[in-house]
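Thread: Protein kinase domain-containing protein, structure

OP (GT): Posting the sequence first so everyone is looking at the same thing. Length is 1091 residues per the record. Can we get the structure tokens written out before standup tomorrow? I want them in the notebook alongside the other entries.
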Amino acid sequence: MVNGNPDWDRIQLNIESLWSGGPFQNSSYNGGNHQPSEQGYLATQMKRIGNTIFTSPNGTISDIRPLPADEIAFGSYSGAGYLNINRTASGKPTNYARWLDMDNAVLKTTWTEPSGSFNRTYFCSNPTRACTVHTVSSTAGGFSGTFWFSSLDGLPTRNISCLDGNTIQLRGYAASPGMLYEILGKIQQTGPANSSAGCTVDGKSGDAVLVAQGSTEAWVDWVGGTEYSMETGNAGSGYRFKGADPHAELVGLLGKASVEKVGAKLSTHVEDYRSALGGFSLNIGQKVDRTKTTAQLRKEYKTDTGNPYIEWLMFNYGRYMLIGSTRGYLPANLQGKWARDPANPWFGNYQPNINLQMNYWFAEMTGLNVTSTLWNYMEKTWVPRGSETAKILYNATSGWVVHNAVNTFGHTGMNRFGSDNSAEWANYPEAAAWMMFHVYDHLDYTNDITWWKAHGWPLLKGVASFWLDHLVEDEHFGDGTLVAVPCNSPEQPITTLACAHSQQVIWQLFNAVEKGFDASAVTAKKLKLDRGIKIGSWGQLQEWKVEFDSPTNLHRHLSHLIGLYPGYAITNFKSLAGQSQDTASLTRDQVLRASEISLISRGNGTGPDGDAGWEKVWRAACWAQLQNATRFYHQLTYAIERNFAENLWSLYNSFAEDPIFQIDANLGYPAAVLNALVQAPDTASLSDALAITLLPALPSAWSSGSISGARIRGGMMLDLTWSNGKAVRASLKVDPVVWGLPGESVLARHPEQAVFQNHTMYKAPYLPRISASVEAAIQDISKFVRLNEVAPDQYEEAGFGASANVFRGIYTRGNSDVVKVAVKCVRPKSTDESHEVSKEKINKKVAHELSIWHSLNGGHNIVELLGIFTGIKSIPSFVCELCPWNLEEYLERKSPLPKHTKMSNILVTSDETAKLCDFGRSQKSGDPKVEVSHSSAFAGTIRYMSPELFSPDIIGPTPAADMWSYGCVALEVMCRVPPYHETTNDLEVVKLITNGSPPGNRPSGPRASLVNDTLWSALSACWKGQDSRPTSKEFLDQLLSMVEKGEIPSPPVLSHSPPDPQGDPIGEWPEEVPDLTDHLEIEEGIGTIAK
């Protein structure tokens, strides 16, 4: 934080570990816990409180004393002081400019005086752990100035002295008594022979100062530290949190930093910072306005009108601030690295009922390398004391817990903070459970199994263990569900049972356990858990299981909507039949509508209880989740106009005389923006498809833009481009680290256009061999098959389907002939099942397809099934003949096809014989419905599905439905247009199908010659009503009759001689279809015909 002018600069100094309070101030500090001797008494009182709530007519209690303990030396994050720069200008400065380069994390100031121009650079380097301010004059010897430290008012008296001839030393304490801190600064310069720089004592103040005289360039490097240490924050070390005097380490750091040239230090810093930024970039159509300052642009900013440049700038500012706040020893607190006072608002603490979580919402999706300090902090300050809190306060037999306000000294207890009954603020044992969202997400986004085993799983296990112990059966409603009691919806005064927030958080916690580890105890409890989803009397999503909701409650928190965002209990709601709670009868649409009513009733984030930026940003993210672009952009722009300062800092009560800076809205803002552009909310099970929604709430102000390097859960990366409000290109790539892990089924969808690209192989885990009954029908030829290996345990792909990989290989027949083959390997969908469940499912799937394929094998138009292969970690696979093309590729070689063509399940041999493959969704005539797992909601490709298949009463595909699909394929082959080619939106396709529209109209113009009246009549008969379509035999007989009578035109695409699979592309279309290249205009970047 820097402010000033050419004559005077003031640099705010912060040391992230500098805190008052804790054991440094009071040896009795115990993390806010009761005494161990009180455990039995507290257990009795906890039981009494729960019983009172259960037996109360309205399910509440007015007072939870004695659970909150007295607060002892909680302390506060403290600023450390200032580095001041004073000089006398040679005249009136001109051309003054100051800017923050967020691509490189460098602050620059330039100005001109009569004596010359000046250039000043400021940066703090993570590799060197040192900061530098470097001033250069265009005139030799043109810079002279004084650099001096000053302390904050309210801190104890500090000592500022010269450590040596060029080094200044500041030593002081955060309180009296309190934590020791030290800052060292060293001055260096270059210039004419008479120039100098050094440390001297100021005659007036008696403090040491650094002085540069007649220099061409001068720079000061400084380092700072405290005696704080997390390594001693445990029972074995007496919870001292005290390390060594920082002096020796600081001398070493400054020595290394000062011997390196400024340019070299800057280059190292920039390289490291860009590495932390990752490969993400955002473009929302912003236009840089260099004629105005940021302050001017912010003053002109208006709600709803907006300014994409300011909105883009704030997005990147959030990235810069999070990196700057997290890459040292501790995570980001309420002030980040920008604390102004010795005692900061809300102690400058880690507030884990929204604020701490919001700080990290966007970190994983933008690939920022910022979370290691968060895990380290939780492991070393929350877990040790939190385990004691769980045992003493909750009588828990295992696990750990923290509450609403935590510091750097392992403060985990429930505290009064001066209030006789502070349940509204302090009763929040769900804090750690919410933080586990971030722990599981880190695994989900990175697939870092090593980290998960060492750090993620132990953290998650401890929190889940506490809740397994603490949940009780609901005796108020008597519905058999497990609930949290007593609970307060964060910072709401009502103390009751089964707060919606508590139940949704715990449900998502248990899901994370199930997905990350096989934990049957969690599964059993989760099935009885109240999920916190209940619709109230005015259509709202209830905040409490007992209905206390008021439509006039404008509370700043959206706690009961945590399952809408950032969680998924609401967003991906699924009713669970058989559960003894109201959710069994609810639909996802009903739950989303109830959440929308609640969101509307909660207001715009300016209420009688507060006026913060974070509450508005949270609302914006929720509106984006509901895919309401208008309300999203209104809420986002309203937040900027009302709560962000001219320097783009988020302010609490911005109209106050001295408003408070609070970093959470700055860091939550990028998450809200991202949620309007890409959504991929988690699911309760890895077996559920992951839905990726593109541009779900795109405001018109951002009509064109792009995203590069967005991380998607499951270990994927997304690049996206949009124009005129619609996606025009999307690329989804799977990380190499995912190879060897189970694939997660992915559904990419967009309200206007479905886009999905994936060319990366999923490697499946071990699965048992298929059953003996199946093996008996088809020969196991594993020993005679060899896959084409491109790298260790990686094989050459021949194709990639929704539920299987296809690899290339060779098969040595019994007569020693070697033929090329394809090996189809079925992918399992999840690992959250037992070995026996996985075995049963894979056996059923493989047996079903083998049965169908085997019964058809030998048919002229069926891909030949050769046998079974179990060589990929014993995964049962199918070996079949290798066809050089699918039908789409084959026709593409003839001439370009529309890009929405979908004929991948029809293969073409080198002698131009079309053959069918993939019978996983097929059924034998007369068989009962076969229950096999599919990777998408529809068992088929939407454009080829007949109207009746969209009926909820349909029991499965029928021969009539097959004839509809056959007509669609014939349309594509003969007329070169895909079904319903007039739209790219699958939702529109569904509407067209169910409304009775045929897949296509008869070609006109140059294409009219491709099909005559007789052939079109036969073709369109396939799209009649279900009972009026021809059977396959009737259609074949009609075709054969037309061939005999010469009523079918010459084939427009097939040539007379077989093409060479390795040769040149197949020849051009016949002359009767003219080349229209010179008659068309193609709209650039979109790929559709404009005229």
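GT: Both are above now. Quick notes for whoever picks this up: Residues 8-22+76-277 form a domain with the Beta-galactosidase; Chain A, domain 5 fold (CATH 2.70.98.50). The first strand starts at residue 2 and ends at 4.
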